[in-house]
């Protein structure tokens, strides 16, 4: 699977993983009643737990992998990144979190690209669950700099956008083994070397217009994510997946894009 091929796919499937260029054939049946936005938001916010920004500490860190599966094949690595809070500045109305982000982007037959950047994540002190997240990501650089917390802020608002309708909300408890890296450090305080939380999935229907014909199109895809409350605050969304259909050179095929937290440590 060449890097050029994957990059073309990612032009079709946005970095946050909300939309695909074609209809997901698995979702053409009756989707049932539309999900009430308020009900969806209540479930998502409750799954996150407390919204106290003091939960974010200097030294909190996580490693995150992005994987892509084509034609129902196994998920394969696309990039890896690590994010560390290096400083916290509390102001009257906002808190600034200074981040160092290191990434490893897979290359096509050559050496992987390694890079480091710094950014400041500014969050309003009042009700962070309703703060403005990074609503869209224009390129790979945007995505690499986006934290799981910002993805959470976006999915909270997901069903409230005028061009999106939501269906088939499913909420379930999950419990599973910790990532291997965390197991190697005495399981980071997790009982039985397992974490647990809520898994939420929802069908999103986006309405758009064909740029050539002007005809209205409705696109259905699945968004799912897992939240673990007793992870470092910024990294509680430990899994985030898009499951849909894409197109490349007039060929349609299933695509699954996921981000996983593969390691994390609490700061002091």
Can you offer a commentary on this structure?
A 9-stranded antiparallel β-sheet has the order 4-3-2-1-9-8-7-6-5. The protein has 5 helices and 9 strands, in the order H-H-E-E-E-E-H-H-E-H-E-E-E-E. The longest helix has 12 residues, at 37-48. It has 268 residues and is of the alpha+beta class. Residues 1-9 and 14-22 have low confidence and may be disordered.
Explain briefly what this protein structure is:
By secondary structure, the protein is an alpha+beta fold.
Fill in the keyword field for this structure.
268 residues, alpha+beta, nine-stranded antiparallel sheet, 5 helices, disordered N terminus
Number of strands: 9
Listing every helix as H and every strand as E from the N terminus to the C terminus, the arrangement reads HHEEEEHHEHEEEE
Mean pLDDT, all residues: 82
Unreliable stretches? 1-9, 14-22
Global morphology: globular
What percent of residues adopt helix (DSSP H or I)?
Answer: 10-25%
Please list the strands of the largest sheet in the order they lie side by side: 4-3-2-1-9-8-7-6-5
Q: Measured on Cα atoms, how large is the radius of gyration? A: 19 Å
How far the N terminus sits from the C terminus, by CA atoms, comes to 42 Å
List the helices and strands and how they pair.
Layout: H1 3-12, H2 37-48, E1 61-70, E2 76-90, E3 94-105, E4 113-124, H3 140-145, H4 148-157, E5 164-177, H5 180-183, E6 194-209, E7 216-227, E8 237-248, E9 251-265
Antiparallel strand pairs: 1-2, 1-9, 2-3, 3-4, 5-6, 6-7, 7-8, 8-9
């Amino acid at each position: 699977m060449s890097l050029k091929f994957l990059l073309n796919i990612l032009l079709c499937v946005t970095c946050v993983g909300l939309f695909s260029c074609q209809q997901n054939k698995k979702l053409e049946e009756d989707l049932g009643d539309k999900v009430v936005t308020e009900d969806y938001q209540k479930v998502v916010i409750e799954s996150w737990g407390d919204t106290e920004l003091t939960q974010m500490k200097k030294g909190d860190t996580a490693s995150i992998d992005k994987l892509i599966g084509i034609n129902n094949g196994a998920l394969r690595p696309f990039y890896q990144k690590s994010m560390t809070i290096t400083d916290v500045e509390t102001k009257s109305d906002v808190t600034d979190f200074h981040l160092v982000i290191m990434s490893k982007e897979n290359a096509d037959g050559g050496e992987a690209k390694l890079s480091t950047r710094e950014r400041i994540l500014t969050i309003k002190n009042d009700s962070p669950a309703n703060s403005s997240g990074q609503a869209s990501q224009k390129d790979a650089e945007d995505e690499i700099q986006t934290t799981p917390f910002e993805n959470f802020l976006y999915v909270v608002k997901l069903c409230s956008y005028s061009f999106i309708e939501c269906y088939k909300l499913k909420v379930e408890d999950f419990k599973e083994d910790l990532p291997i890296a965390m197991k190697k450090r005495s399981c980071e305080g997790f009982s039985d070397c397992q974490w647990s939380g809520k898994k939420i999935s929802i069908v999103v229907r986006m309405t758009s217009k064909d740029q050539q014909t002007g005809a209205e199109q409705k696109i259905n895809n699945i968004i799912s994510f897992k939240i673990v409350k007793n992870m470092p605050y910024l990294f509680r969304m430990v899994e985030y997946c898009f499951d849909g259909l894409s197109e490349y050179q007039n060929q349609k095929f299933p695509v699954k894009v996921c981000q996983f937290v593969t390691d994390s440590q609490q700061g002091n």
